[in-house]
Amino acid sequence: MNQVVLERSFTLKSRLQDYVQLTKFKLASLVVFSAAMGFMTAPGQMQWSQIVLLIIGGFLVTGASNGLNQVFERELDKKMTRTQLRPLPDQRMNVAEATAISLISGIAGVLILTLGINLASGLLGLFALVSYAFIYTPLKQKTPFCVFVGAIPGAIPPMLGWVAATGHFGIEAWVLFAIQFLWQFPHFWAIAWVMDEDYKKAGFIMLPTGQRDEGSALQTFVYALSLFPVGFMPYLFSMSGVISAVVIAITTGYFVKCAYSLYKVQSVEMARKLMFASFIYLPVVQLIIVLNKT
């Protein structure tokens, strides 16, 4: 009897771990963090019930997007070292189950955002899901322009948070969108530089020129540099104070320095350094805007 219980527990644990992988739980957590920061940046009293619904709905929509992405790329994931042990390529989960889980999560997430918060939030969530899973995903094998397309749904979370809190779009929502939108280019290109050989096994064209070269490094540096003027917008539009402007300028300066180092050296080591700097950049910027909001 005890052996049966242990086997069932192990099976349940394994299946839950597979769902975590299918929905990319860690990535979804970062996305939801951005949405929560957007919500808390908005003026007015914090409504905890609304932020809880935002987190739940955000997790479901993001998990659905990631799940559908893996359904569509299951054969390609078999070719890459980084992804070959995911539930679908490793055949621990069938396509029907993964598709059903993803669709149910997506529908539930959109309904929570729409009915629990407001219509604009639901529409943003739906747009992010559809554009990521059905437009960005197939473009990855066709054109480096896919990164631009993917950066659009990728920048929606902080805007979604603002709209969830205020019920309307405004210049502030677009400022939050712009910061995350531009950040994604050096972020994803740094990852693509590090993972270039693995990506090419699946035919993914992620770097702006399609390869590790001076052109890709230069574009990465230029987009990192563009974060300087955008980083001052929260202060200019009275979303946050002078302290946030200073912190964002310093953080951006370090990020740009890493991008410039990649341009000068054009090595995997420098790309990895930029990648880790990008992981730090966004949460620091979003947190300081919230902590120093006016």
Class from secondary-structure proportions: mainly alpha
Whole-number average pLDDT? 94
- Tell me roughly what share of residues is in helical segments: over 70%
Which value, in Å, is the CA radius of gyration? 20 Å
Poorly predicted ranges: 1-9
Tally the beta strands.
0
Count of separate DSSP helical elements: 15
Shape: flat
- Sheet with most strands: none
Distance between the termini: 62 Å
Give me the strand/helix succession. HHHHHHHHHHHHHHH
Strand content: under 5%
Features:
15 helices; mainly alpha; 294 residues
What does this protein look like?
- 79% of the residues lie in helices and 0% in strands.
- It is mainly alpha-helical.
- Helix 3 runs antiparallel to helix 8.
- Residues 1-9 have low confidence and may be disordered.
SSE blueprint and pairings:
Layout: H1 2-23, H2 25-41, H3 48-72, H4 74-77, H5 95-117, H6 119-139, H7 146-154, H8 156-166, H9 171-194, H10 196-201, H11 214-225, H12 227-231, H13 233-236, H14 242-265, H15 268-291
Question: In a few lines, what is going on in this structure?
Answer:
With 294 residues, the chain is mainly alpha-helical. Helix content is 79%, strand content 0%.
